[in-house]
Design brief:
The complex is a heterotrimer of chains A (448), B (209) and C (311). Chain A is an alpha/beta fold. Chain A is built from 15 helices and 17 strands. Chain A folds into 4 domains: 72 residues, OB fold (Dihydrolipoamide Acetyltransferase, E2P), CATH 2.40.50; 164 residues, Rossmann fold; 79 residues, Roll (Ubiquitin-like (UB roll)); 70 residues, no CATH class. In chain A, helix 5 crosses helix 6 and helix 12 crosses helix 15. By secondary structure, chain B is mainly α. Chain B is built from 8 helices and 2 strands, in the order H-H-H-H-H-H-H-E-E-H. In chain B, helix 1 runs parallel beside helix 7, helix 3 packs antiparallel against helix 7 and helix 4 crosses helix 5. Classes of the chains: A alpha/beta (448), B mainly alpha (209), C mainly alpha (311). Chains in contact: A-C, B-C.
Chain lengths: 448, 209, 311
Amino acid sequence: MSNNRTFRGGVHPLHGSHEGKAPTRGKAVRDYTARSVTILMGMHLGAPSTPCVQVGDHVKLGQVIGEPVGFLGLPVHASVSGEVTAVGPVQSVNNPAAMAVTIQNDFKDEWVEGLEPLGSVETCPAEKIVPAIKAAGICGMGGASFPTHVKFAVKEGQYCDTIILNGAECETHLTCDHRLMLERSSRVVDGLRAAMRALNVKKGIIAIEDNKPDAIEAMRQAAQGRLGVEVMALQTKYPQGGEKQLIQVVTGREVPTKKLPLDVHVIVLNVGTAAAIADAVIEGKPVISRITTVTGRVKEPANLRVRIGTSVADLLRECGGFSMDSAHVGKICLGGAMTGLPCPSVHIPITKANNGVVVYCAKEAVELEESPCIRCGRCVDACPIGLNPYKLKYLCDAQDMQGAAAANVMDCVVCGSCSYICPAHRVLTPSFKAMKDKIAAEAKKGKG
Amino acid sequence: MAEKKSMGALLISGLLKENPLLRLALGLCPALAVTTTAFNGLGMGIATACVLLCTSVVVSLLRDLLPEKGRFVAFLVISAAFATLAQMVLKGWQPALCASLGIFVPLIAVNCLILNRADAFAAQNSPAAAIADAVGMGLGYIVAMTLTGAVRELLGAGTVFGQRVLAAGYQPVLLAVMPAGGLLVVGLLIGIANAIAARHSGKKEGESA
Amino acid sequence: MNLHLSPAPHVHSNQSTRVLMRNVLVALIPCVVAGICLFGYSAALLMLASVLTAVVAEYIWQRATGNKVRVGDLSAVVTGLILALNLPPQAPLWLAVVGSAFAIVIVKGLFGGLGDNFINPAMAARALLLASWPRYMTVWTAPTGLNSSVDAVSAATPLLTPGSYSLGQLFLGNIPGSVGEVCKLAILLGLAYLLFTHTITWRIPAVMVASTFVFTWLFGKNPLTSVLSGGVLFAAVFMATDYVTCPMTAPGQFVYAAGIGLVIALIRCFGGYPEGVTYAILLMNIAAPLLDHVFKRRVYGYEKGAKVQNG
């Protein structure tokens, strides 16, 4: 058992097989550029952007193709240069008709004119950093896809004293953050420094699970001599990288219910987001690509730097296809095994937040039959929040919204720990997610 | 009462649909304590039914005179008078039974079955209706108490009303004649009664639909 | 390609109800072997009768009530076997049959089946048998070994004659007692297996034994003999740890286990029974929902002591 810091509860999924990371953690990131990309307008949390190009237009790399809408709005940029071949709704992972722009790649990779690099993160004007982040279309690259510039919007009376870089990568299978920290260590630190300077924060902590000793070492070296930056090793346990858990472990503070990290003076950024911030500040480049781990039942699992909008089918082809007959493929998920979203088809475009594509065979995808709760209490022990999942399940099954709300269902972080551990295979997390959505929808209705 | 039931309906409902012990769960204490034999159950049932009948009639006659506040005190005085009477009769007529029922005969005065019927029915209805209700409820209680006693006696001694039913080699379940066993038997009988009622009402709905 | 769309998580721990029950059965093997070696084949027959009855009763009950038949989860096997291990070796077979059927149908089935029973079925069945047929349930015989032609000699339980057996005898099981509870070595082997497979945690067994030790000591008995005689150890490992009827949070489990030890000590030192483990566990089973209500984990993001409604 590791002595490193951790939170209470949690589980160890795929512990016997190195959290499923063994096939890709030693593989260096390689570039892959698709022949055509389908860029979704709604990649970030918030209203989808409005397409500002038309079919037949020629676009350059990094050119704005979607205008931001509303407070949480972000611009969308062309991730390849070439001709726009379609503007219209496509199937995304959770929306059958999501607005998107399809671009045929001319492989010239001509950058758009007018990029405004700010230069070194240590000397550039601090007040220009947040606008640069917004202009680069950066949103949380760990999965939540919350617009990053909004995270930096410190309200009257609030302040931030610590920025945490989330390099825990507690999800199974994924190694994209691991490889990023190994291969672009100083860029990650640059991003952290830029964020710290933007808000005049004195302390920046890079938190990494101890199943990545090489990344911890690389980041320690990169952080040497950088003002206020330190690296912290955490115990390997899921969901160590959950925002609430991370803040608790790193700072000893708890985000009060219904509040944001900034209310306890903390901002948490994914390491990928930090690298994107550094790219935006130093080179003025928007987000046009990201590292995605393609693993599971594929012939050659890999970490690929892919253009935003590349389809899952292209990624699978690039990795040698399925490692078995396609008739035996059970499930393809965007993200790791604990929170990944199942794809309805292989023609799903990659977004800024997609950190992995994991293929499961039919046997792995089989749904376990629910049996009666035996009150073993494993879910109570596993819940990182301290909820009573077994009781919550009865309330959710009875559609008792008031009861579920009183039992703190809104505090559930939907990490999947309870469902993972339940010996009776009860459908816990999905029930809670459905109940949370229902209560939120009801609250919205009440307001509007 | 929202709807006036006929006398016959009142009689029948106390026996079956609103059986005080098995459907309304009234008068549970003596049901757990003294129904160790069918005879005890029958005796307790009859004694309670008599007190119930007399109390209901008197309460119904006095219903316009009883104050809203403190009416329970009046019910108690009336039922206590009849309970004392019942004990005297029992002592003179069936001294053995009276001894085995013990404290539960005077305790009929505070039996919740009697207080419930006095308050919920007799205090709001004519004496004739009160008699019909009390007779129905009383008979229902007698039947349920005798049944409970019979089951417990059968399990706990292999006899019913002292007559050997099960073979002599039967190893009696002593638990059945202990209070815990009484709880189990009453619980099972209530469960069976509920199941029958559920089936019955299900049929009715099916017919009317 | 037929893509499943079932929601996350997409992996599952390899534990299932069946696996957990199987672990318990494996952990019981040393006790079963020790029981047969010490008390002969009559003990084996007793176990067989009890387990068969439990499984058949579960099957018939689930069929009759129109529920899915889940005999395959092995929970009925565990109940039947634990009941048999709690019986005196010379108990008649019909006793095991009646007890087992009572445990499955009345205690478990009537309350809603696996997970919904409020007291441990095997313990409740033992209480029924003890109350109904004390002359079979309180007659103990000294171990005869496998050679069952030797007539069993009835003997007093060590609980009534403290000091007549050495600690070594108490530990290895060469004493009169229930089939499964006499050999402490076998029980400890089972405990080791349960802990190794993460089937149970150390909390309940450790606290319950410690609490029995401390309280019998405080009440003026030899604590070591108290812990090693009777069913304390067997109950601590296999019955107090029953998932369904014990509290879920760690503090709740501590109080629950300590309470069992206290009640055992009270019954043994001041009560009418020489044993008391059965009633101690049944009493604390009933307290489990209350303990769950009192000892809740603090919910993240709420002040300590702040009013959190949690289920």
